[in-house]
Write a structure and sequence with these properties.
Structural class: alpha+beta
Low-confidence stretches: none
Shape: rod-shaped
Order of helices and strands: HHHEEHHHEEEEHHHEH
Helix content: 40-55%
Mean pLDDT: 82
Largest sheet: 3 strands, antiparallel
Radius of gyration: 29 Å
Strand order of the largest sheet: 4-5-6
Distance between the termini: 38 Å
Number of strands: 7
Number of helices: 10
């Protein structure tokens, strides 16, 4: 493709990104320094359309970029290593976002998604696929106060459950030590399909005085492990969608 076609294509893409509306040859000539007449631009636009790089907007004489046109635009940028003028600012943003401790893969994916949304001013979506859970590799109840506990459970697929539990009765340190010892012996490194059966058995045997606590633990483990077992969707910068001109039209926004 010659330079003139490329310049016209990129001008159409630039216009559509900014205004969200198709653009005609006269508007291109008036807005962009293309050094050619509207008639020449029309001919080039016709060629670009035949190449599948732009599309005609209904009965309008305006054109808008196609998926193929956008792909060429992105490939050109990557190939020519065009640098953003705000690189220094974005580098600072990356450093700030990464300046934290990560405890699991979920934290890393969440931060990366936020980073992508902030750097691009777009909506970023990520999906992580989790391996099937087979067992709990570690589990502990930590006493935060007389009536507040922190449940920590680590599954073999890397998922970490961290959840506060509030009780309507007090648990002493000795009681908590006993409960933790029982839970670790019956829950840790046990087939996940047996874990909840074991909890139910404990409710009527060793830990029958703590039935309500065990019920809470079971619900938290099920909701946070099985509910996220297969995949997790992370969405950041959702409001950035409305930065685009086309969404000034309420029907399009809906």
């Amino acid at each position: 493709m010659n330079d003139r076609k490329l310049k016209i294509l990129f001008s159409i893409i630039d216009s559509y990104i900014i205004d969200g509306e198709p653009i005609g040859s006269k508007s291109l000539a008036d807005t962009y320094n293309l050094d050619v007449s509207p008639a020449t631009i029309r001919n080039e636009m016709s060629s670009l359309e035949k190449m599948g790089l732009i599309e005609k907007a209904h009965s309008s004489s305006g054109r808008l970029p196609s998926d193929k046109g956008y792909r060429m635009f992105v490939d050109y940028i990557l190939k020519n290593e065009m640098e953003d003028i705000s690189k220094a600012k974005k580098s600072d943003t990356i450093i700030n976002l990464l300046d934290k401790n990560y405890h699991n893969a979920e934290d890393i994916v969440e931060t990366a998604t936020k980073m992508l949304a902030e750097l691009t001013n777009l909506t970023a979506v990520s999906m992580t696929h989790k391996n099937e859970i087979k067992m709990i590799v570690n589990m502990e109840l930590i006493r935060l106060s007389d009536r507040q506990l922190l449940l920590l459970a680590v599954f073999d697929n890397g998922l970490i459950v961290k959840d506060s539990i509030y009780l309507d009765y007090e648990i002493t340190p000795d009681e908590l030590l006993f409960i933790n010892n029982v839970l670790k012996k019956t829950m840790v490194e046990t087939d996940i399909n047996e874990v909840y059966n074991n909890l139910n058995l404990l409710e009527i045997t060793l830990l029958n005085d703590y039935k309500s606590l065990l019920e809470i633990i079971e619900k938290r483990l099920q909701s946070q492990s099985f509910g996220k077992q297969n995949r997790e969707i992370q969405i950041e910068g959702l409001g950035n969608i409305f930065n685009f001109k086309e969404y000034d039209d309420l029907s399009k926004a809906q």
